Amino acid sequence: MALINVKTKEVQIKIVYYGPGRGGKTTNLEYLNRTYREQIKTEMVSLKTHDDRTLFFDFLPFDVGQIKGFDVAIQLYTVPGQVKYNATRKLVLRGVDGIVFVADVQQSQRKKNIESLNQLYENLKTYKLDLFNIPLVMQYNKIDLNKTDIPTLSSQTLQKDLNGLLNVPAFEASALNGGNVIPTLKKIISITLASIQEHLF
Amino acid sequence: MLNQNQLDAIDHAIETHLIAAGIDHVIYMEMSGNTIAKHDNGKTRLDSTAFAALAAGNFAAVDAMAKLVGESEFSLLFHKGEKLSIHFSKVSNDTLLVSMFNKDISLGIVRLKVAVAIKEIIQVLADPDIP
User: What domains can be seen in chain B, in order of their start residue?
Assistant: First the structure.
């Protein structure tokens, strides 16, 4: 639940990038960190393993200016994608306000995408949150692989697999070179803000 | 959501019991990593946003470890440094008080003062109409 501080006129919102391992969650945050370096007051925090994979989370705070007199601070987190780290994924989801689900378009990752989404549903339940009610955006990442020989899933397949029931906004993206990284972020911020607006006034 | 009176009372508890006792930085935060109140003695600087995110992660990890060994919780944590030490104490199910202090003040005093401040904060949380 977003923190609304009536004294300091601040709203703090937690957005978590969730998805299977090596899907590009950290790459999304790294691109945002490079692009908006001047607006980000602090360093990006990354808790990584020795082989550069997310161990606990990445953290990037992000000011989006004022909305109706309140300073809005967005806190972006990623979770570790590797299957064995579910306990940590659950911890990072505590107090989440909005989620970007980063799916991998590689054909070989089809099952992992679905498993990860199912696990997200279960993990949210432990905090009495419902995947069907929480602000959520789908991102189908690594779309640039379409130009290579690596077999990829079509958008229709991904929509059917992951978004058939949820029916949330979805973006094809290429986090590595920034394609649709910013539109994904703008979308999740706008729907998350809309969902907490009733608490603001 | 805490109202203005509650936030004022929390600020007052932190300032009078902790900052006045010589503690450098105090962050009162949600377990999700959001900060509710932050105070310092003006002498040192700290990136409190990143700190709170890491503190929440740290506390949550230790809490999960407690459950693995059959404890319901480890309600306080202490990290000792050469010049600076950090004391974490759970206030409610959803909130945490983090105090950073230098070697001029002893852990015993910090624990004592933190206990008093937490008692006051718990009262504030329970009563939205606190004067």
Answer: 4-126 (3.30.450.30)
